[in-house]
Automatic annotation (TrEMBL):
GO biological-process terms attached to the record: ribosomal small subunit biogenesis
RNA-binding S4 domain boundaries: 104-164
Signal peptide start and end residues: none
Keywords linked to the UniProt accession: Ribonucleoprotein, Ribosomal protein, RNA-binding, rRNA-binding
Name of the featured protein: RNA-binding S4 domain-containing protein
Domain of life: Eukaryota
Gene Ontology MF terms: rRNA binding; structural constituent of ribosome
Amino acid sequence: MPKKPSSPLRSLARGLLRASWHKQNLYNFFKKEAYRRSASLYQQKWESKRETRAYHGDHITENNWLGVFKKNLVGAETLHDKDDKSGEREPVPIALQLYAPIERRLDMAMFRAMFASSPRQAREFISSGKVKVNGSKVKHGFYPLRPGDVFSVEPECVLTAVGREKPSEGFSKEVDTKQLEAFEKFKENCKEDPRNMFEQKFTPISVDGPYDPERLYQKVRAMTVENLMNKIQDLTLDGVSAEDLVAKGQMEVEQYRDSFQAGEAVTADDPSISQLATEYFRLDSTASEPSAEAKDLLKRIAQRRVEIQQTELQEFVRLFRGAASVYDPRWYYPYLEEYCGSPLPWQDGAYGLQDPSKPYFTPWTPRTFLAPFAIVPWHLEISYKTCHAVYLRDPITRRGHSEVISPLPLYMHENAYLFYVRDRQ
């Protein structure tokens, strides 16, 4: 079991930044104040050490950290480009390499790969036997990774870490009760005034804000002939042709005409009429007068044509006569019965407990406030489909870039390095 810290990890009063995805940690970062430049040199170094150690390896004791601390920091230096005449070259943030040895730990690598919400949770997964390194189970979070090592986590653990927290039965019941009350009220409003509710749902939300007579008056005054002509010209330049601005009435007339022509074409192309006509011409090709059988075929052809025309006319009236007919307030009843067959039509099961056997919110959704922490380092190659990751190399630093992720500024790492170097001498 991990040792319980003596002070709260996410104390809003202390405001220390932790390696965690918790929303209170994000709030501490938001309200972080500027560094106190008026303090003495030792106070600055002590405060920098306190802030940086709170984020880098807060779950590691100070003695264990001093055991892996390296006095000589290593960075990558690129060759000078002779074509660069400006002479301005970004410095190498070598001080960020202070906590590079911690990035080699298995629990920290899992946190960087977004397989766990914090190094402490990663250590819980490791001690439970849910993590493998190169195909073998490892139960120690301090296991040092080497370049080329492949570590994997059970997908169920990753879904638990990245997904929303599973609600309790009482909380789920409370949320479902509120949702059902709101839904029942919505159904009653739909039954009382369905047209108004339909218009409310499909009315776009106004982006102009509340009604302001002065602003409306200014808009009316600005609608001069010159402005309108400029807007029309802009529409033309944007590719809107005059054919796209057809009047609504003309479009409706064309729809009626096309529907009538389609009905005529259907009666002419009906396969039953074509077969009867072929049979009639076969019987009537040699006779001087139509035979009784041919006359019977003519009657059947005429009768079939009338039936098809009546069917198409009824379909035409059903589709295009709705606007002129009297409004039926019960038109939505069949759809409402189908939609309301389940007490919770928008979800299967209780809120967040669609599958109670899972240790996370179901159906699975990512946890809130995850975007600010979604940073994948350069020294890891990650596959979220299989929950595997490759430790490519130890984190390095170049000009203007460091692979050691830290939310704290560079000068804090410099002061922390000075504190530990002096302490080790």
